[in-house]
Prior knowledge:
The chain has one domain. Helices cover 7% and strands 24% of the residues. The protein contains two helices and five strands. The chain has helices at residues 113-116, 122-127; strands spanning 13-18, 28-35, 49-56, 69-76, 97-98. Strands 1-3-4-2-5 form a five-stranded antiparallel β-sheet, with no helix packed on it. The protein is globular. The two termini are 21 Å apart. The model has no long low-confidence stretch (mean pLDDT 88). It holds the Pfam family DUF6009.
Amino acid sequence: MSASIEPDDLMHETELVWLESIEALDYVRQSLDRLPSRRRKPAYHRDGRMVGYAVLGPEAKGSPASGTFRRRVFWLAPHDRDQQPTGFYSTGAPVEAIDPRTLAPRCPGRKTERSEGGPPSPAMVELGITLDKA
Length: 134
């Protein structure tokens, strides 16, 4: 989940590979997965589809116990906004959702008004909280 991704988890990323255009996507889900390689496209075992993944540099060390590498995977579930614009996430977004335009290697990305599904809530306005419109 994005909430548990720390900058140290991303320090060996060298690039993000997008499997489809992210221009029309308001958000992507990101997770930190244990994968058998630094670079190859990972196998995908979730419901929905993988839209991208991170590549690690040669200095990244695998887990001593399993030999696996922690890498980010970007994905969408079948009930996400891109497939069901008037569905559950017509406003709001899953906790692990990040605006893909804010992502870069070694950068965890952030939520924006776009990724959250619209203008700020009245509570956000009252508290003076704003998200980027990206």
